[in-house]
Specification:
The longest helix is centred in the first third of the chain and has 26 residues, at about 75-100. It is built from 30 helices and 28 strands. The chain is an alpha/beta fold. β17 (about 450-460), α20 (about 460-475) and β18 (about 485-490) form a beta-alpha-beta unit.
C-alpha cells in the first residue's frame, strides 16, 4: 500500500491532521509506504511564504477583507465557482507530476487547495485511485469539499449539511477527531499533579494555535477576573512576544507556556479549552473529552467554526468584553452544565467513525461516481417541487396471503424493491448556475429504503390502508434519497400492502409499474451504463443522461390499450425487463448522445439502419406511435458542391439541428442502440433506414406543429370555484375500483376507447362535486406516454401531456361520454402529448436559472385545474413468491394550485382509482372517488 498525504505548512493544524492519518495508516497497513506532499510548496518558489503572510495579515490586520471573501464564496455562486476552478486548475497542474511519480494507491488530503488539485486530476482522468479529504476545521466551506473526492470527512453531524451545500455530489462522512493517539480521555488528577496544578481549581487552557492568533492577554485577564478559583494556562505557541507580555503580568495563578511538545498533558489537566479558531486545538480538546469556550473567534472560518460547535452543544461562544468571565462564572455556579457539555463531547467521539475504519472504507469502496445531467423531462419535477407541493409519485400494491396462509414477507418486499427506478440515485437540484443532475449511490440497497409496520390484529382493509397511505405519502421523499417504501402486514385475513414513494424526477408511472412487474416475474431490471469522461467542446456536447439504460431494445412492445396498454405473459411484453442486474438511474455512454445529432452536414435527423422492433399499438388516447421507431423532422441530402460560406453556416446551425433532433426523435443518450442507429459515436454513419414515405414524415411534422399550436392557443384554464389552498405536504388518498370487463363492455357499447370512457366518468364526478358552480369545461392535464420502440423499456419520464377541457357542465352522462371522446380526439389525435414533451425539452435549452423559472411558470394551476392519468398495468396475474398481487393503486402528485389528481390503472380484472387531495380536503377526495363509482353504475 502506497499512501500519499497532501498537506501544507499553514500553521500546524493541517499537518497535525496528516500525522494522525499517517498513524492510522500504519496501524491498518503496517507495511505501507507513506509519503508527504506540501501543496503550497508545489505552487512555485516563494508562494508558500506569500500565502502564509497573506493569511496572517488577513486575520490580524484586515479581518474585514477575510470576512468579505469568506462570505462571497457562500453568497455569490459564480464567484465561488470561478475561484474553485482557478484554484483547482492551478494546484492540480502543479501536483500532477509528483503524484504520478509516487504512484500512490491511496491519496489523503488535509488542506483545501490540495483537495482542489486532486479533484482536478480526477476530473482530468489523471488520478484513478481513491481520494480522501479530512476537513480539519469544524465548519467546511466551498474550498474544502469536492464531489471528485471519494470521501470527505467532516468533524460532526452538524457539518454535513454545509459540506453538501458546498458540493452536493460529495460523499460526506463524520470522522472522529483526526488527532494523534496521545489525545484521548485520561486521568485529570494525574495530569495536574505532573504539572503542579491545584487539584480543586477551575483550570481553563488558553490556546490560540501554533501562530498564537488573537487577543490572548485580554482573554487571560478576563479569566483571572472571573473568580479566584480560576487558574488559567496560556499556551502561546510561537508567539514569543505574547508569552513575554503575559509573564510580565506577574500573576501567581497564571501558567504561561510557549511552544510545547506535550499539549495533550495540558489538555487533560484542564476543565475547558479556550480558543478562537476552532481548528486542531478544538479537535484535540474534543478528543480528550474537554468542552470548548470560543472567545472572540477570529474572522471568517473561526466564526463559522464557533457557530457550528455551539449548535452541536460542544462549545460556548463569547464575543464581547466581559462575556467570557460571565460564562466561566456561570459554569462554576452550574457544574451540571459543564457536565452536560462533556457528555455531549463523549457521545460525539463514541459515535463518529474511527480513522482506521474510514480509511478501510475509502480503500475498498467504489470511487464516488460522477454526476450526470438530468433530462429536461426529469428536471422539470425537481424545479417545480416545493415543501408544500412535493413531486412524489408512487404505487400501493395489495397482496393476498400465500397458499400456506402466511403474509408477504419483508424479504419478499426487498426483492421486489430492488427493481425500483431511482433506488440507487441521488438527485442534485442544482443552482442558479448549475443544471439539475443525478448521481448513482452504488452502496444503497432496497433494505435501506424499506420499513415495516404490522397493524391489527385483523384490522379491516379499508381503514388500515387509508390510515397507512395518508401517513406514509404525507412524508415527502428527499432528493438525497428519492425512494421510500413501507410494508404493512397484519391486515384483515393476513393481507399485506407495499407502499412505494419516489421522486417524480426519477421515473414515470409506466417505468415504475413495469419494473416491479418484471421483477416479480423474474426479469432482470435495467441498469445504468457507465459514461466515459470526455473533453466537452460546447454546451451541445454535454452528455444528457437518460434515467435508465437499455441493453437490447429489440423486443416486441406490449399492446397498449386506452393510453398505455396492458402487460401480458408475452416473453418481452413487460416494461423494464432487461439483462442487467441493478435498477438504478441510467447514464449515457457517449458525449453526443442525442439520436441523429452529427457533425456531418448531411446527417439524417433520427435515421436508423434497421428498425428493430414493432411499435406499440395504441387505442384511444395512447398516442401516435406508428410502425417506425423514430419520428423525424425530415432528411437532407449531401451537397458536395456548396460554398465554404454555406458550410460555415451549416456548422453554426449544428446545435439547432441537434435540438430539433431531440424534440422530434427518441433520445438514446449514448445507450447501446438497436443495430445501425445513428449517432453512437457522434459521427454520422451512412443512414440505411427502411424506405419511408416523405408523406409520413410530413404528417409527423404537421402533427407536432398542430400540437404546439393547440398548446399555444389554449390559454389559461377556465376558472374553477373551489379551494386551491395547499398548506403542506400532508395528503389524503381516496380509492375505488371498477370491473374491467364491465368497463370494456360499456366502452364498446358507447363506441369509445376505454380511456375516454373512464375520463368521462371523472368529468361526471367533477361536475357532481362542483354542482351549480361547475364551469362548462374544466381543464385537465392528462400525462400520456410518448414512448416508442426506442424508449419503450427505458426508465425516466417519457411522457407528454394533453391539456383537455373536459365537459363538466350540465348534460346527460351519455352526452358527457360523447363530448369527452370528441375533445380527447381533438387534442390527443393531433399531437398534443408529443408537443408537450417537445416544449419541455426545448425549455431545457435555457440557462439553468431561466429553466427553473420557466418550469414553475408552465406547471401550475394557471393552465390546468386537475391532473388525471390512465396507466397501464398487468392484465394477467402477478405473483410475488407465492403471494398474488391482487390490486395496485397509482399515486399521483399534485401541482402548485392544483388540489386534485386522479390516477387510474388497469390491473387484472379491475380499473383502480386513487384520488389525491390535500389532507384538509379529505371529504372532497372521498366524494370524487364515490362519484366515479356511482356514475359508472348509472352508465
Amino acid at each position: 500500500m502506497r499512501v500519499l498525504i497532501v498537506s501544507a505548512n499553514m500553521g500546524q493544524g493541517h499537518n497535525a491532521t496528516g500525522r494522525a492519518l499517517e498513524d492510522a495508516v500504519r496501524e491498518r497497513w503496517p507495511d505501507a509506504t507513506v509519503s508527504w506532499l506540501n501543496a503550497l510548496e508545489r505552487l512555485g518558489p516563494g508562494f508558500e511564504g506569500l500565502f502564509q503572510r497573506i493569511y496572517v495579515a488577513n486575520v490580524e490586520s484586515v479581518p474585514w477583507l477575510y470576512e468579505f471573501f469568506y462570505g462571497a464564496i457562500w453568497r455569490i455562486p459564480w464567484f465561488a465557482a470561478a475561484s474553485r476552478w482557478f484554484t483547482a486548475s492551478w494546484c492540480g497542474a502543479r501536483l500532477a507530476k509528483p503524484v504520478a511519480e509516487f504512484a500512490p494507491d491511496l491519496v489523503l488530503s488535509t488542506y483545501p487547495m490540495g483537495t482542489a488539485g486532486l479533484a482536478w486530476l480526477r476530473r482530468k482522468g489523471k488520478l484513478s485511485v481513491p481520494i480522501g479529504a479530512w476537513v480539519s476545521d469544524f465548519a467546511p466551506h466551498p474550498f474544502w469539499v469536492y464531489g471528485a473526492a471519494d470521501l470527505t470527512m467532516v468533524m460532526h453531524d452538524v457539518a454535513v449539511a454545509p459540506a453538501l451545500r458546498s458540493s452536493p455530489s460529495a460523499h460526506v462522512g463524520v470522522s472522529a477527531p483526526p488527532v494523534r493517539a496521545v489525545f484521548r480521555p485520561g486521568d485529570q488528577t494525574a495530569a495536574r499533579h505532573e504539572l503542579e496544578l491545584p487539584p480543586d481549581a477551575f483550570v481553563p487552557l488558553v490556546s490560540c494555535g501554533s501562530l498564537g492568533f488573537g487577543e490572548i492577554e485580554t482573554t487571560v485577564r478576563e479569566l483571572l477576573a472571573a473568580d479566584p478559583s480560576v487558574v488559567p494556562i496560556a499556551i502561546c505557541g510561537r508567539n514569543d512576544a505574547a508569552a513575554a507580555r503575559l509573564r510580565a503580568l506577574d500573576e501567581p495563578r497564571l501558567r504561561v507556556v510557549g511552544w510545547t511538545d506535550q499539549p495533550e498533558l495540558y489538555t487533560l489537566a484542564a476543565d475547558v479549552v479556550v480558543t478562537n479558531a476552532g481548528g486542531a486545538t478544538s479537535l484535540e480538546a474534543l478528543a480528550c473529552g474537554r468542552p470548548v469556550l470560543m472567545h472572540r473567534p477570529i474572522a471568517a472560518h473561526g466564526k463559522a467554526n464557533a457557530r457550528l460547535m455551539a449548535a452541536a452543544g460542544l462549545a460556548l461562544v463569547s464575543t464581547k468584553d466581559g462575556e467570557l468571565a460571565e460564562t466561566v462564572r456561570g459554569l462554576l455556579a452550574e457544574p451540571e452544565r459543564l457536565k452536560e457539555m462533556a457528555e455531549a463531547v463523549a457521545r460525539h467521539c463514541e459515535t463518529a467513525t474511527p480513522l482506521e475504519t474510514a480509511l478501510e472504507s475509502l480503500a475498498s469502496a467504489p470511487l464516488n461516481p460522477p454526476t450526470q445531467r438530468l433530462r429536461p423531462e426529469d428536471a422539470l419535477f425537481v424545479h417545480v417541487a416545493t415543501p408544500e407541493v412535493p413531486q412524489q409519485v408512487g404505487a400501493v400494491l395489495l397482496f393476498d396471503p400465500k397458499a400456506d396462509g402466511t403474509p408477504v414477507t419483508h424479504a419478499d418486499a426487498e426483492h421486489l424493491l430492488a427493481a425500483t427506478p431511482g433506488l440507487r440515485t441521488r438527485l442534485l437540484p442544482g443552482s442558479g448556475l448549475w443544471r439539475a443532475r443525478w448521481q448513482e449511490d452504488p452502496g444503497r440497497t432496497s433494505s435501506d429504503v424499506l420499513t415495516s409496520v404490522r397493524v391489527g390484529p385483523e384490522e379491516p382493509l379499508e381503514s388500515a390502508l387509508t390510515r397507512e397511505m395518508d401517513a406514509f405519502f404525507s412524508e415527502p421523499v428527499s432528493p438525497e434519497r428519492p425512494v421510500r417504501a413501507r410494508l404493512v402486514t397484519g391486515i384483515e385475513g393476513e393481507q399485506g400492502a407495499l407502499l412505494i414513494a419516489l421522486h417524480h424526477a426519477a421515473s414515470d408511472g409506466i417505468a415504475v409499474i413495469s419494473a416491479l412487474v418484471g421483477q416479480a416475474r423474474g426479469k432482470e431490471p435495467l441498469v445504468p451504463v457507465a459514461v466515459p469522461r470526455s473533453r466537452r467542446r460546447g454546451w451541445w456536447s454535454r452528455p444528457n443522461a437518460t434515467l435508465g439504460a437499455l441493453k437490447e431494445p429489440a423486443a416486441r412492445s406490449a399492446s397498449v390499450e386506452g393510453g398505455g396498454g396492458g402487460m401480458d405473459g408475452a416473453p418481452n411484453a413487460t416494461l423494464g425487463a432487461s439483462r442487467a442486474p441493478n435498477a438504478t438511474l441510467g447514464a449515457s455512454r457517449a458525449p453526443n448522445a442525442t439520436l441523429g445529432a452529427s457533425r456531418a452536414p448531411n446527417a439524417t435527423l433520427g435515421a436508423l439502419r434497421e428498425p428493430a422492433a414493432r411499435s406499440a399499438s395504441v387505442e384511444g388516447a395512447g398516442g401516435g406511435m406508428d410502425g417506425a421507431p423514430n419520428a423525424t423532422l425530415g432528411r437532407t441530402r449531401s451537397q458536395p458542391g456548396r460554398s465554404a460560406v454555406r458550410a460555415r453556416l451549416a456548422g453554426l446551425a449544428a446545435p439547432v439541428r441537434e435540438v430539433f433532433a431531440r424534440v422530434a426523435s427518441p433520445v438514446w443518450h449514448g445507450l447501446d442502440r438497436p443495430a445501425g442507429s445513428a449517432g453512437g459515436s457522434g459521427i454520422a454513419e451512412p443512414a440505411r433506414p427502411k424506405p419511408r414515405s416523405s408523406s409520413k414524415t410530413r404528417n409527423q411534422a404537421a402533427d407536432l406543429t398542430r400540437g404546439i399550436w393547440a398548446l399555444a392557443r389554449a390559454g389559461a384554464a377556465p376558472r374553477v370555484r373551489w379551494d386551491k389552498q395547499i398548506d403542506g405536504p400532508q395528503r389524503h388518498f381516496a380509492r375505488a375500483h371498477l370491473s374491467a370487463p364491465e368497463v370494456r363492455k360499456a366502452a364498446r357499447r358507447a363506441a369509445v376507447p376505454t380511456t375516454n370512457l373512464v375520463l368521462a366518468l371523472v368529468a361526471e364526478a367533477l361536475h357532481r362535486e362542483l354542482g351549480g358552480t361547475a364551469p362548462e369545461q374544466l381543464r385537465v392535464l392528462i400525462p400520456m406516454s410518448v414512448r416508442d420502440t426506442g424508449t419503450f423499456r427505458q426508465l425516466g419520464n417519457h411522457t407528454g401531456a394533453a391539456s383537455v377541457d373536459l365537459p363538466t357542465g350540465a348534460m346527460s352522462l351519455s352526452e358527457r361520454v360523447r363530448a369527452t371522446d370528441r375533445m380527447l380526439s381533438d387534442q390527443v389525435g393531433h399531437g398534443a402529448p408529443r408537443a408537450g414533451n417537445a416544449v419541455v425539452r426545448v425549455l431545457g435549452i435555457l440557462p439553468p436559472a431561466l429553466h427553473r423559472r420557466a418550469a414553475k411558470l408552465v406547471y401550475r394551476g394557471t393552465w390546468f385545474s386537475v391532473i388525471a392519468s390512465v396507466l397501464p398495468g398487468a392484465r394477467s396475474p402477478v405473483v410475488l413468491n407465492g403471494a398474488l398481487v391482487r390490486t395496485v393503486y397509482p399515486v399521483l402528485s399534485l401541482a402548485p394550485d392544483v388540489p386534485v389528481a386522479v390516477g387510474i390503472m388497469t390491473w387484472a380484472d379491475r380499473f383502480t382509482v386513487c384520488v389525491t387531495v390535500p389532507a384538509g380536503q379529505a371529504e372532497r377526495g372521498d366524494r370524487l372517488a364515490a362519484a366515479v363509482v356511482e356514475a359508472f353504475g348509472r352508465l
